[in-house]
Design a protein that fits this description.
The chain has helices spanning 39-52, 83-92, 112-133, 155-164, 189-199, and strands spanning 8-12, 17-24, 27-35, 58-64, 70-72, 98-105, 137-150, 168-174, 178-185, 206-208, 212-215. The protein is of the alpha+beta class and 216 residues long.
Length: 216
């Protein structure tokens, strides 16, 4: 998987939950991985899992956001044996805007620090692998929306300009004239806007919006 960059990152599709489970000396480790939009979403999911597995010994959370914020907790396990290994798997997978909670049902045998690190790592890796297998991992790209208002006579030429610039038509509205809602990779909209202005004899028929992350 690619690492998180300023222009794209990988995340789980909204609404999907991937689960991975490993067992070590009768202790069960269940990793539950979801998409979140921010810290409040992460905290809500952590609370949901704690309620779901209220009888478990530990519910270890880790989350990482696209803006660089991240957090983890050992939830009563020895320091740096659970939360940090879980977070490291998410980092290594290039994931962002995700929250993973690893539930441990204690099997009666102490695993030691090394055993705990391996178990929490393996459970989280299993959840990521399950998400990949299910096609639940998507790439979010920094894109710029552009709205174009144009006469019907320019429609074919403008749509060719969109394709040439690598853009996509997200929506079309046909009334007295045509309104197109377009999406470009951030930066790629500038040549299109300039070409559309030239085509329209200097009229600003294309209006860029604020960049945002979206599937592209």
């Amino acid at each position: 998987m690619r690492a998180v960059t300023g222009e794209s990152y990988l995340t789980l599709r909204a609404g999907a939950e991937a689960v991975g489970e490993v067992e070590d000396r009768r202790s069960r480790f269940i990793a539950q991985l979801v998409h979140v939009e921010g810290e409040k979403d992460a905290e809500a999911f952590i609370a949901e899992v704690r309620a779901r597995h209220h009888d478990a010994r530990h519910n270890v959370p880790a989350w990482i956001l696209a803006d660089g914020r991240e957090r983890c907790s050992d939830d009563g396990e020895p320091s740096r044996t659970s939360g940090m290994p879980t977070l490291e798997v998410l980092r290594g997978a290039g994931l962002a805007n995700v929250c993973c909670v690893v539930t441990r049902y204690f099997g009666g045998t102490l695993l030691g620090p090394g055993g705990l690190v391996r178990a929490y790592t393996a459970a989280t890796q299993a959840a990521v692998a399950e998400a990949e297998k299910d096609g639940a991992i998507v790439e979010m790209t920094l894109v710029t929306p552009v709205t174009v208002q144009l006469p019907y006579a320019l429609y074919d030429r403008v749509t060719r300009l969109v394709a040439d610039a690598g853009g996509k038509v997200a929506d079309s509205l046909f009334a007295e004239d045509v309104q197109l809602s377009l999406v470009f990779r951030a930066g790629a909209e500038a040549p299109f806007v300039a070409a559309a202005r030239e085509l329209a004899n200097g009229d600003d028929i294309a209006r860029p919006g604020q960049p945002r992350f979206a599937e592209f």
